[in-house]
Amino acid sequence: MVPFRAHVSIATAALVFVIPVVTGAIIGRFPAGVASVAAGFIVYDYGFIPPYNRLRVGNAQDWVALTVYAVVMLLVSRVVANLESARSEAQRRTVDAQRLFDLSELLVEDRSVEDLLRTIVDAVRTVFEVPGVALLVPEADRLEIAASAGEALSQDELHGLEPLSGVPVSLGTGPGTPGGIRTVVLTASGRPVGMLAMRGMPDSEADRALLRTFANHAALALERVRLRERALRSEVLEEVDRLRHALVGAVSHDLRTPLATMKVASSTLLHPPIPLSEADTNELHALIDVETDRLTRLVTSLLDMTRIDAGVLEVRRGPTSVPDLVDEAVAALRSTLGDRPIGMVMPDDLPAVDIDHLLISQVLANLLDNANRHAPPESEITVAAEVRGDRIALSVADAGPGVPPAEREAVFDRYVRFDTGGRAGLGLTIAKTFVEAHGEHIWVEDGAEGGARFIFTLPRAEASVGSGDG
């Protein structure tokens, strides 16, 4: 502006000198603003107030201009510096809030205790830029490292953190010795749940305050996860207890009938109320033999089902004729079925199936026994087979009361009992277990003429060559 100072008024020059003062206050806060005012005062006097190029003031009016400039610019510098400080503080608080929000999001995710501990130490080391951090949790009467990140703590440092070590430990988030061990206790519900041990501490007070807040959040998250796991363990124990009682009830239900029959027959043979004929004696002996076979099948099936659940029973596949399989199951139950008619509906060219013969034979026997118990006396039970793509569908249908739609899934559950006359016992559960061991499915639907129709699929032998066990 010097070449044009003859055409620029003193007031205009003072307004232009506002720019470096404001710039200085923004960049360097109030000290830089004061320096800019001092420099502007000298340049203003030297270059724009007559006599030019001298640090002299010609009249009182110019003194007033210089004084007003200095006072106003100092005030402007202070205001701008304060505004800039407030803006910077607002930005810092926004960043801190975002950091705390990001850290809190890490803590509220659904994860195990181990994952949460690892997340806490990784977040502290990354966000607060400390060389090393370890999270210690109380175990019995000592502290154990549950997770760590960065530089590991030495044995001496760990010993110093023990409550009974007698070594003084720096607690809290105050400024500490660089590289020294500082600890922050994690407390929830008024009791300690862990302790953060850090090598060093964040430099700024804002970061240390954020660390304290994060430590509180971490303590609450750790307590929440532990309480949730305890609740889950309690629920699991309650469920196991419920299932144990249900299994005992289911097994006792299926064991009670053959045992009761055998007991009555044997007691009658031992202490007959009236003299028994040879035919009566033979009938009682046959009844004991039938119920013994039934009980043996049930116990064997229970053992096989347990081995399948444990993953230790191997399904031994091989080609098997479906008619022969059905004939064998019917023959095994003939003493139980008595004179009940069994109808068979199968195509002549029905292909063989690739199955474990013993397991699927037991499936058919259980379904036939189930139908025999629920069908009206002397009504026919129908066993049918049909080809469905690369599968053979076998079905056992009876004329009994059927299975309500609401119970068709639960009827196969070993732990469900029906007190309204519905189907019960372990036979259907065993059948489902053996069928699913082959990778196939079993279900129940309404029969063509009423009653229930249980259907299950089996793989065709030619479609299963080279395949592994189910």
Report on the structure:
- It is a single chain.
- The protein has 470 residues and is α+β, with helices and mostly antiparallel strands.
- The protein folds into three domains: 2-102, no CATH class; 109-233, Beta-Lactamase; 307-459, 2-Layer Sandwich (Heat Shock Protein 90), CATH 3.30.565.
- The chain contains eleven helices and twelve strands.
- The chain has helices at residues 10-16, 18-48, 60-108, 113-128, 155-160, 205-270, 278-309, 322-332, 334-337, 357-374, 427-437; strands at 132-139, 142-150, 170-171, 181-188, 191-199, 318-320, 342-345, 353-355, 381-388, 391-397, 442-446, 452-459.
- It has a five-stranded mixed β-sheet with strand order 2-1-5-4-3.
- Helix 2 runs antiparallel to helix 3 (60-108), helix 3 packs antiparallel against helix 4 (113-128) and helix 3 runs parallel beside helix 6.
- CATH topology (level 3) name of the largest domain: Heat Shock Protein 90
CATH architecture descriptor name of the largest domain = 2-Layer Sandwich
> Are there runs of 5+ residues with pLDDT below 50, and where?
164-175, 418-424, 463-470
Strand order of the largest sheet: 2-1-5-4-3
Q: Termini separation (Å)?
A: 94 Å
Shape: elongated
Radius of gyration: 45 Å
How many distinct beta strands?
Answer: 12
